Amino acid sequence: MKGNIRENLNRVLDNIREAELRSGRKEGSVQLVAVSKFHPVSAVVEAYEAGQRIFGENRVQEAVEKFSEIGKKDIELHLIGSLQRNKVGKILPYVSCIQSVDRIELVMEIERKLSSNSDDQRKTFQNVLMEIHTGEESKSGYTSEKDLFDSIDYALKSGKVRIQGLMTMAPFTQDENLIRASFKKLIALQHQVVSRYPGLQLPVISMGMSNDYKIAIEEGSTMVRIGTAIFGTRE
């Protein structure tokens, strides 16, 4: 898919609004993360100039290099790809939200870096989403409720790692029933977590990509991660 990024972005935003309306949702209840991985700085700038402010990247090195060059203070950068513990310190100064927290060791490392007094680390807290494995295609994410709850317990005691919600990736399939089942599983887990931790709101449900975001919105997503439908296929 090619075309004008501004036109693509507006088309996606229109589709989001239509899906909100169709689902009886309030307009603006779903946030858009424009996934710019593997796309050049010029593509991000074009989307920015069209009004987009939240961007998603998969790789730490690419994210740091790209958004350091862009240098826009009002951009929210979300890391949506797998994060290695040794890259935590590098990404923290740049990222608004880490959507791919999938193990307690990562929670502990984020907390450790935030507690350090290094000159390049002035943040006092980090917003995160807990990535949940809900589909066969997903290679990462929590599969054990115990592991998830242990991570939440640690984060709540720390206070520095602030859990904003849950994230998942549905299986890449044409079977709508499988896709919906994956999304329903995440919503059910959200309810379970909120019931277990009354003080934890989890307002963000990040699910839905270019091929399934309309379904995700119907199933309760509050944040969709869209790359191809905005930027086109990667070369």
TrEMBL record:
UniProt modified residues of type N6-(pyridoxal phosphate)lysine: 37
Keyword Iron: no
Domain Alanine racemase N-terminal span(s) in chain numbering: 8-234
Transmembrane segment boundaries: none
InterPro entries in the record: Ala_racemase_N, PLP-binding_barrel, PyrdxlP_homeostasis
Record GO terms (molecular function): pyridoxal phosphate binding
Keywords from the named record: Pyridoxal phosphate
Cofactor or coenzyme needed: pyridoxal 5'-phosphate
Domain of life where this protein originates: Bacteria
Function: Pyridoxal 5'-phosphate (PLP)-binding protein, which is involved in PLP homeostasis.
Family: Belongs to the pyridoxal phosphate-binding protein YggS/PROSC family.
Name under which the protein is recorded: Pyridoxal phosphate homeostasis protein
Originating species: Candidatus Gallitreponema excrementavium
